[in-house]
C-alpha cells in the first residue's frame, strides 16, 4: 500500500500543479472571446462604411483605421492562440513529468514562459487596437462636426 499511496500522492500533486496553467488557459479563452467579438464589430463597421458612396469625406481615412484595428486584433488572436497552445503543452509536460525526469523542468519553464510572453503580446496588441478604436471615434466625430482631425502628438 505504500507504493500505491505514494503514486496517488504524486498524481495528486501533479494535478494540483496543473491548475495554475489551466487558470491561465481560462483567461486566454476569455481574451480570445473578447478579441473575436471586437473583430466582428470591426468587420461590420468596415462593411457598412464600404457600402457608402466614395464622395463621403473622411471615409478612406476611417477605412484605414479599421484596417489597422483588424491587423492589431489579428495579432492579438494569433498571440493568444499561441499562448493557449503553450499552456496546454505545459499541462501535458506536467503530466508526463515523471517520464521525462529532470528534463521536464527546463521544458516547463520554456513552455510556460513562452505562454506568458505571448499573453503579454496579445494584451499589448489589444491595447493598440483599443487606441486605434478611440482614434477612429475621434475621427468620426471630427468628420461630423466639420473639424480637422487632431494632429498626431509625439511623446517625449
Blueprint (SSEs and pairs):
Elements: H1 2-51, H2 59-100, H3 103-145
Characteristics:
single chain; 3 helices; 156 residues; 87% helix; rod-shaped; mainly alpha
What can you tell me about this protein's structure?
- The chain is mainly alpha-helical.
- The protein has 3 helices and no strands.
- The chain is 87% helix and 0% strand.
- The protein has helices at residues 2-51, 59-100, 103-145.
- The longest helix is centred in the first third of the chain and has 50 residues, at 2-51.
- 22% of the residues are buried.
Shape: rod-shaped
Average pLDDT reading: 82
Beta-strand content: under 5%
Instruction: Report the C-alpha radius of gyration, rounded.
Output: 23 Å
Poorly predicted sequence stretches spanning 5 or more consecutive residues:
none
Listing every helix as H and every strand as E from the N terminus to the C terminus, the arrangement reads: HHH
Helix segment count? 3
Structural class: mainly alpha
Helix content: over 70%
What is the compact description of this entry?
This protein has 156 residues and is mainly α.
Amino acid at each position: 500500500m505504500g507504493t500505491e499511496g505514494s503514486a496517488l500522492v504524486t498524481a495528486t500533486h501533479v494535478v494540483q500543479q496543473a491548475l495554475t496553467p489551466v487558470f491561465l488557459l481560462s483567461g486566454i479563452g476569455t481574451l480570445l472571446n473578447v478579441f473575436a467579438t471586437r473583430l466582428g464589430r470591426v468587420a461590420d463597421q468596415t462593411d457598412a462604411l464600404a457600402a457608402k458612396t466614395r464622395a463621403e469625406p473622411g471615409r478612406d481615412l476611417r477605412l484605414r483605421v479599421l484596417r489597422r484595428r483588424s491587423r492589431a486584433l489579428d495579432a492579438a488572436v494569433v498571440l493568444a492562440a499561441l499562448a493557449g497552445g503553450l499552456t496546454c503543452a505545459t499541462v501535458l509536460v506536467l503530466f508526463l513529468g515523471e517520464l521525462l525526469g529532470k528534463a521536464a523542468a527546463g521544458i516547463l519553464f520554456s513552455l510556460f514562459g513562452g505562454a506568458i510572453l505571448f499573453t503579454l503580446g496579445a494584451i499589448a496588441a489589444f491595447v493598440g487596437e483599443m487606441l486605434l478604436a478611440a482614434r477612429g471615434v475621434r475621427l468620426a466625430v471630427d468628420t461630423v462636426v466639420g473639424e480637422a482631425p487632431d494632429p498626431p502628438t509625439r511623446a517625449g
